[in-house]
Design brief:
By secondary structure, the chain is mostly helical. The chain is about 80% helix and about 0% strand.
């Protein structure tokens, strides 16, 4: 379903049903990254800018949905440690996890603060936060900061484009593609560095 069709579908729903869809979409993309949650969030933003839906409830449900999704990922990472799943890993795999967690302990706040702007891998930041034993309060705080900044940017973009849904979709698609290339390069570099450390 393209963005315009999705927007029309949401606009035809009772507001309560549309808010539930927006919340679930913002949450599910953290649990199942291939899910196109950003597309649904953009459609929600367009409800405000193109169809004059009230900003506060739309903004709130997509922001809280993102925080809930990040919280589930964080809980999964913490559970993997508590259950002993990490401790039972083969030594080489455990060493990889330990090296990645050590990096996250050093730069974790930065990753969490920008997570909402990075498609595809944002869920793994919260899993890593759970693996690293970070406290839930700061993790959810940075999830709130990042989601608020991203959703505010989308609203501003919608206002700037005068509610042009197609153009909003193009801009967000270009952002996702550009960030995807940067993430692929970054993941490759981290994998190379991790492999070198293991070899040493």
């Amino acid at each position: 379903m393209d963005l315009v069709a999705l927007l029309q579908l949401l606009n035809q729903m009772p507001p309560e049903s549309a808010y539930i869809v927006l919340f679930l979409a913002a949450m599910i993309e953290y649990v199942f990254p291939p899910f196109p949650g950003d597309t649904v969030v953009v459609a929600g933003t367009a409800l405000v800018t193109a169809f004059a839906w009230p900003l506060a409830p739309v903004f709130t449900v997509v922001t809280v949905g993102a925080i809930a999704g990040g919280g589930l990922d964080f809980a999964l990472g913490a559970w993997l440690v508590r259950s002993g799943a990490v401790a039972r890993m083969p030594p080489k795999r455990r060493k990889i996890v330990d090296l990645l967690v050590a990096r996250f302990e050093r730069y974790g706040v930065i990753y969490l603060a920008v997570n909402r702007f990075i498609p595809g891998v944002r869920a793994f930041f919260f899993i890593a936060a759970g693996l690293a034993g970070l406290r839930a309060g700061p993790v959810l705080f940075w999830a709130l900061v990042s989601a608020t900044a991203w959703n505010g940017l989308l609203v501003g973009l919608g206002i700037f484009l005068g509610g042009n849904v197609q153009q909003m979709g193009v801009w967000v698609g270009r952002h996702s593609m550009g960030v995807g290339v940067v993430v692929a390069v970054g993941v490759g570099w981290i994998a190379l560095q991790t492999w070198r450390e293991i070899r040493r």
